[in-house]
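Q: What residues go here?
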């Protein structure tokens, strides 16, 4: 495949770069170790790369492609689902009042609550070690984690804002927006560009992201792949 913008194939860019330590590799195929993430990519559409992807799925479970178009048909692998999405970036953030709650750094001891919150709210793929891909922050009410946001894929010069979610009983207080601002501003302060992905059908989330200063960069397709039966 011809070289392009790092975000055109964010998983490939991250797994060959700053997230190489989280990668599993077979020939020309890469995927995140399944304890960290589900995303995968191939270097090209050669027989060797496709066979490598098939081996990674067979050995380590389902994967997801998050690119502009669907991957080439892979012998031995079935498409489980496909859903349209958008990729968004921000060069700067809009201003906003300070949140009325402390935004806390989340640590290893918070992982059970992070997993429970992600399982309940389904912000996207989140596993037992996803929090190790970057920094995560949260809001607690009565000692209980009710909202969080953090970092995921890290292509050179870019960091993805991800894992954004709020418990249904605590929505409407601006926690998600405040956490996203914190995460995104830290990325900007490092001299990088924050980016994120959202399902195209989630118009409310996209509107929130636009209000924060994100703009749609391109359309993407979320394709889940599993071993054919």
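A:
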């Amino acid at each position: 495949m011809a070289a392009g913008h790092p975000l055109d194939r964010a998983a490939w860019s991250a797994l060959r770069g700053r997230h190489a330590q989280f990668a599993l590799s077979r020939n020309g195929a890469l995927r995140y170790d399944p304890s960290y993430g589900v995303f995968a990519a191939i270097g090209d559409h050669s027989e060797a790369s496709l066979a490598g992807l098939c081996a990674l799925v067979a050995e380590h479970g389902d994967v997801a492609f998050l690119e502009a178009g669907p991957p080439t048909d892979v012998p031995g692998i079935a498409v489980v689902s496909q859903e349209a999405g958008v990729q968004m970036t921000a060069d700067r953030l809009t201003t906003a009042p300070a949140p009325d709650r402390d935004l806390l750094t989340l640590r290893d001891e918070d992982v059970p609550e992070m997993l429970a919150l992600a399982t309940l709210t389904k912000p996207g793929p989140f596993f037992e070690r996803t929090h190790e891909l970057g920094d995560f922050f949260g809001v607690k009410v009565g000692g209980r984690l009710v909202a969080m946001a953090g970092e995921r894929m890290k292509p050179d010069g870019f960091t993805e804002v991800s894992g954004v979610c709020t418990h249904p009983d605590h929505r409407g207080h601006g926690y998600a927006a405040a956490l996203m601002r914190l995460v995104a501003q830290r990325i900007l302060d490092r001299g990088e560009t924050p980016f994120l992905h959202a399902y195209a059908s989630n118009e409310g989330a996209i509107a929130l992201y636009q209000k924060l200063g994100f703009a749609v960069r391109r359309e993407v397709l979320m394709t889940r792949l599993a071993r054919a039966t």
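A: Context that may help when evaluating the design: The two ends are 29 Å apart (CA to CA). The chain has a mean pLDDT of 94.
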